[in-house]
Amino acid sequence: MSKVNKVTDSNVAEFIQSPITILQFSAEWCGPCRMLGPIIEELAASNADIAIGKVNVDENSESASKYGVRGIPTIIFFKDGEIIDKVV
Q1: In what order do the strands lie in the sheet with 51-56?
Q2: Could you list the active site residues?
Q3: DSSP secondary structure of 32-47
Q4: Which of 8, 33, 54, 84 makes an SS bond possible with 73, Cβ 3.0 to 4.6 Å?
Q5: What does DSSP say about strands 5-7 and 51-56: parallel, antiparallel, or unpaired?
Q6: pLDDT tens digits for range 46-72
């Protein structure tokens, strides 16, 4: 059973190097982000082969800026470290 990883500015570059990665950019105060949380947890539990992480934009503004996150929640899909899709 896989879990959702906490991703920060210091480990995001390494984390997205997995073959398939999903990152949720969110914040504690964001209602829609909290509603999406259980779905992301379920996705992680049923897809052990996918690296799934959450980035708190309040604590990791460098990553949010680097990946062009303008609104939250934002989910970015990576394949081999490259962005393949983004959903806001």
Answers
A1: 5-7, 51-56, 20-26, 74-79, 82-87
A2: 30, 33
A3: HHHHHHHHHHHHHHH-
A4: 33
A5: parallel
A6: 999 999 999 999 999 999 999 999 999
